[in-house]
TrEMBL record:
Source species of the chain: Leptospira borgpetersenii str. 200701203
All residue ranges annotated as the PPM-type phosphatase domain in the record: 843-1057
Lineage: Bacteria, Pseudomonadati, Spirochaetota, Spirochaetia, Leptospirales
Domain GAF: 644-798
Pfam family, any one: GAF
TM region positions: none
InterPro entries linked: GAF, GAF-like_dom_sf, Hybrid_Histidine_Kinase, PPM-type-like_dom_sf, PPM-type_phosphatase-like_dom
Coiled coil: none
This protein's name: Stage II sporulation protein E
Length: 1060
């Protein structure tokens, strides 16, 4: 700091010298952070800057500092800096430095607009318009006004400025286009397109006309008004954009027309693949014109109009954040604000709890302060209101900019004057959700009707889908007391169902559960109760594991209420308990309390018993919520790895209890002198069975008559309602005394021999052992049969070894000889298994490399590659359950079947379907995951289909993308329909096919290598050849394992596309 005691002239001289020193440093090595410091010294020394060179340097660095302040959204600083420069402009300045003067006035006006100094901004604009003659320069001024007015939400003003800008370019434009104008514009588009596909449009000429390029810029900035004010105008603007591009050629801003047209095409035709092609064309345009400055706009549009059909909410919030950061990087504040709004909106279902959602809102509100975009505050206030409304029993007010007001005042004094369609639609959707959950149908419909125009015009798919869902439910619920819905309301509901059907086919994860709820509610209204049952079950089955608690709670609540209405109180209690837990976990305490009051408890149950049952319910529901065939398969694999009988029985019993929702269970095994209860578990008692017990002495533990009947007949006994007098077992003494609600006795067999009997019961609710759980138990039982027999053999071998030890040397030699034979057999098996793996021929158009490492001498992984026709290569990767010899035998069987099928099946999905049928027919209990990928180097496509396999990876331009799962595990379900996904490939793309052994490896501290480390490894090594990259990934894994052996078979194939 320069001392105040120094004279003013001396201080100015010091500041000047410091400025010149920093300027010289900046010339040698430019640094952005040095600019404000230089500007500060120049301002403090401006009185002694007199030469022309000094004035030019002063203006240069103050402009740089002002632009830097604008980029940081520090509009006060920018305003002060450009005010200083503006005061220094003279008539001579306009003659000598006109371009610089225009820049200063434009930047001053922009900063003044953002600070609501409208009169100063308008005066500066008028000066510019009076000074400028070139039409492009005049349009640039209008464009600045347009963007600022959009950011300030003055949509009417922005539209009027847009019309002036078009007039300055002599572009005719109807203020309010009608149907005739739209039809004419559409016919022009057909003519200009001349049947060209999106791929052929990449080869269109480049637009060299600056007036046409500016026209596209103007029309793009007028879209915001059309979106919120006039649907026909919105469509006309997109058609106009498209027609200029088709007629004049491609330019950096052409992506607006292409992408927008693609989205409109999906709305009209439902053809999502064509929509993707137009969006890909838009991205191609940005890339070839190196238009990174507008990439943020493209990312935002894709996030709101396209990605919602392809990505889960957890990914959508990341994509919204990416769009925001890219817009901020180039000072594109309006689109940064749009991206911030989408970030806040998507987090509603991405957040696990209301607390984490609230934290996001606080963060977004702080980021919004820098942008000065009022709509951000409204979106945050509306979201905060929802959190508090469903989290508290008392009526809540809206808190907007530290001011508390009722919802009605917020609508009247904030939403209506602000007149932003997105903000209004978001508020209406959230109020609709809140009123529906609280049963206030009339209030919800009032809000929907008040903001109907904004909701119907919403181009944000998430908001629009939520609106259709909740308004449809409001209409059905509010008309329960009436005989029939009006024809208009009925049409609205049917249209909503139709839209959700299309959306759920495009991306089931985000739409399917809501589609089934709508179908169920509609059939409930029509009193078609069979279909209602079916659709509610479908809704429950369609819930995704990674779906947010709030969406899960809504689905479980609907299904629970329906079951209660049908008189199935116990199942209703179960579903409502799940819903209550999910609401409470999310933070919707008031709603959770409402559900708790709705639930039906058993009558005449004491308080202690009720508390005990609540605890038991938690245990059961915890396991029931997480049922997942992949986790069951993992459990099956963990069972297959145990060979010691006592440990196996304990592990088997624990696994079955966790997956079956039982409160008590036993395993009964035959011995020479009868049946023995070998192990058991009860969620109330840890010491239910301290030692094995003869079945005849276990009358207090289980109904022995039923167990004997099951063992002797080999038949499964299922009693989902033991109180029914129609059951032949209703008079059983154990059932009469203990009164279990549900009971299952299941023989575990292998090749017709009964190895054991599994007994399960649930003492709390009826209908526990449904088809879903029976299917899971069949899988576990199949593995249990193999493992029990292996354990029995192991026990026999152990006993035999104890006898052999007495003979010491002779028997030891015999044993060593046997082991040597086994070792040789294993080595021979290894050679056999390796011999079935394919050769690695050179395949034109691709470069690939393979790594195959079984955990033992032989393993359960298998791969194949084959040229099915010229230029089309089929890759196959499979992973059988278990390890070692058992898994290797499975791969041999699969190899035999696959070799026959791979040459006759035309596409991957039909191949998997046929292979699944063969496995079920021939092998019964054989399970494996796999993926088939067909690479066509002629038309540059990849077609793939997977069966329960981990998502494979596509690496493009340094970014990874996961392939969707397209079907269930092979050998699991009969007649399962697999489907094929198709991806357009580009030269340089890399495809990674692998088994889960590549990342399911643990080091000495039990940390997993994991998907994140694997993904990071392939991204960092992507510049290497496939062969070198495989070596690098292997080195990364070995470094992580630190000498630990691999614990699973692993296969990795890296394929690089090298189209000429």
């Amino acid at each position: 700091m320069i001392g105040e005691s120094i004279a003013l002239e001396q201080r100015a001289e010091i500041h000047k010298n410091l400025a010149w020193f920093l300027i010289e440093s900046d010339r040698l090595a430019s640094k952005q952070e040095r600019i404000p410091e230089i500007a500060n010294h120049l301002i403090k020394s401006q009185k002694i800057l007199s030469s022309k060179e000094e004035v030019e340097i002063f203006n240069h660095y103050i402009i740089l500092a002002g632009n830097s302040a604008k980029l940081a959204a520090a509009f006060n600083t920018a305003y002060n800096l450009f005010t200083l420069l503006k005061k220094k402009i003279t008539e001579e300045s306009w003659k000598d430095r006109k371009e610089q003067c225009v820049q200063i006035y434009k930047s001053f006006a922009e900063s003044a607009y953002f600070l609501s100094k409208t009169l100063e901004a308008e005066d500066a604009v008028q000066v510019l318009l009076s000074r400028l003659q070139d039409r492009i320069e005049i349009v640039d001024v209008y464009l600045m006004q347009l963007e600022v007015m959009n950011a300030k939400n003055d949509l009417e003003g922005a539209y009027k400025v847009g019309l002036k800008a078009l007039q300055s370019l002599d572009v005719g434009f109807p203020e309010k286009p009608g149907i005739t104008v739209l039809i004419f514009e559409f016919l022009k588009m057909i003519y200009y397109q001349r049947g060209r596909s999106p791929e052929r449009l990449r080869e269109a000429k480049k637009n060299q006309d600056p007036y046409k390029i500016e026209t596209i810029n103007i029309l793009t900035n007028m879209l915001n008004y059309g979106k919120h004010s006039d649907g026909k105008l919105f469509v006309f603007l997109f058609l106009k954009l498209m027609n200029i591009t088709l007629k004049e050629g491609n330019s950096p801003v052409s992506f607006f027309g292409y992408a927008g047209f693609g989205s409109l095409l999906f709305v009209v035709t439902g053809n999502f693949k064509t929509t993707l092609r137009y969006w890909d064309l838009g991205e191609y345009i940005i890339r070839i014109f190196n238009a990174d400055r507008i990439r943020g706009r493209y990312l935002f549009g894709k996030n709101m109009l396209l990605d919602f059909y392809r990505q889960p909410f957890s990914k959508l919030v990341l994509l919204a954040d990416e769009a925001y950061e890219k817009c901020i990087q180039y000072g594109d504040y309006l689109w940064a604000a749009f991206s911030l709004i989408s970030h806040s909106i998507y987090h509603l279902y991405s957040s696990d709890t209301s607390e984490s959602y609230y934290e996001v809102l606080i963060k977004d509100a702080k980021r919004g302060e820098q942008l000065g975009y009022e709509t951000v505050y409204i979106v945050v206030a509306s979201s905060d209101f929802l959190i508090r409304s469903i989290g508290n029993t008392s009526k809540q007010n809206v808190i907007y900019r530290d001011r508390e007001m009722s919802a009605e005042i917020f609508e009247r004094e904030v939403l209506v004057p602000n007149a932003n369609g997105t903000a209004n639609a978001w508020y209406a959707v959230l109020r609709g959700k809140e009123t529906y959950l609280s049963g206030e149908w009339k209030e919800g419909l009032r809000v929907f009707d008040k903001f109907a125009n904004d909701l119907e015009r919403s181009r944000t798919i998430f908001i629009y889908s939520e609106y259709r869902f909740y308004k449809s439910l409001h209409l059905i619920r509010s008309n329960e007391s009436k005989r029939r819905l009006s024809w208009s309301n009925l049409f609205f509901i049917k249209r909503s169902i139709s839209l959700f059907k299309v959306w759920s086919k495009t991306f089931p994860d985000n739409f399917q559960s809501y589609f089934y709820i709508l179908k169920a509610e509609y059939n409930r209204y029509k009193k078609d109760f069979a279909k209602t049952d079916m659709f509610y079950e479908s809704a429950l089955s369609s819930l995704q594991e990674n779906e947010g608690n709030l969406r899960k709670a809504i689905v479980h609540e609907h299904a629970g209420v329906w079951e209660f209405e049908r008189g199935r109180k116990h199942y209703a209690n179960y579903l409502l308990k799940v819903s209550e837990r999910q609401y409470r976990t999310w933070g919707a305490t008031a709603k959770a309390n409402q559900i708790q009051a709705m639930r039906q408890h058993e009558e005449d149950v004491g308080i202690l018993l009720r508390m005990r049952e609540e605890a038991l319910w938690d245990t059961i529901l915890k396991s029931a919520e997480k049922l997942d065939f992949r986790s069951v398969l993992k459990s099956s694999q963990s069972i297959s790895e145990i060979i010691e009988q006592d440990e196996l029985l304990r592990k088997l019993m624990r696994t079955i209890m966790e997956n079956a929702g039982a409160t008590r269970g036993f395993l009964i095994l035959p011995r020479k002198d009868g049946l023995y209860v070998e192990t058991g578990q009860d969620i109330e008692r840890e010491d239910i069975l301290t030692r094995s017990l003869i079945l005849d002495y276990a009358t207090e533990l289980l109904p022995i008559e039923i167990v004997y009947y099951c063992y002797r007949s080999g038949q499964r006994i299922l009693l989902n309602n033991t109180s029914s007098k129609d059951s032949p077992h209703s008079l059983n003494s154990y059932i009469g005394a203990k009164r279990p609600k549900s009971l299952l006795c299941l023989p575990i067999t292998k090749q017709g021999r009964i190895l054991s009997v599994l007994y399960l019961e649930n003492g709390l609710t009826y209908d526990v052992f449904d088809e879903h759980k029976l299917e899971i138990l069949e899988i576990l039982s199949s593995q249990a049969a193999i493992s029990l027999e292996n354990a029995k053999l192991y026990e026999d071998i152990t006993s035999l070894n104890a006898e052999l030890e007495k003979k010491v040397e002779l028997r030891t030699q015999e044993l060593m000889q046997s082991l040597e034979i086994i070792r040789k057999d294993l080595l021979y098996s290894k050679k056999i298994q390796r011999s079935i793996l394919p050769e690695h021929p050179v395949l034109p158009g691709i470069v690939y490399s393979v790594s195959y490492q079984p955990m033992d001498e032989v393993g359960g992984d298998f791969y194949d590659l084959f040229e099915i026709r010229p230029g089309v290569y089929r890759f196959f990767v499979a992973d059988a359950t278990g390890h070692g010899v058992q898994a290797a035998l499975i791969t041999m069987a699969i190899k035999s079947e696959y070799e026959h099928l791979k040459k006759i099946q035309k596409n991957p999905s039909s191949l998997l379907g046929e292979l699944n049928a063969v496995i079920l027919e021939k092998f019964k209990t054989l399970y494996l995951t796999c993926v088939v990928a067909d690479i066509n180097v002629k038309n540059h496509t990849l077609e793939y289909s997977s069966a329960g396999h981990p998502p494979q990876i596509l690496l493009r331009e340094g970014k990874t993308d996961l392939f969707h799962k397209t079907g269930a595990i092979l050998g699991l379900k009969k007649d399962f329909v697999y489907y094929t996904e198709k991806i357009k490939l580009k030269s340089g793309d890399r495809i990674y096919l692998f088994t889960d052994g590549i990342y399911e490896q643990f080091n000495a501290t039990k940390n997993e290598f994991g998907e994140a480390r694997f993904s990071n490894s392939i991204v960092l090594s992507s510049s290497l050849s496939p062969e070198d990259q495989i070596s690098t990934v292997q080195k990364d894994l070995n470094l992580f394992l630190q000498g630990e052996p691999i614990q699973d078979d692993l296969t990795l194939i890296i394929i690089e596309v090298v189209f000429s």
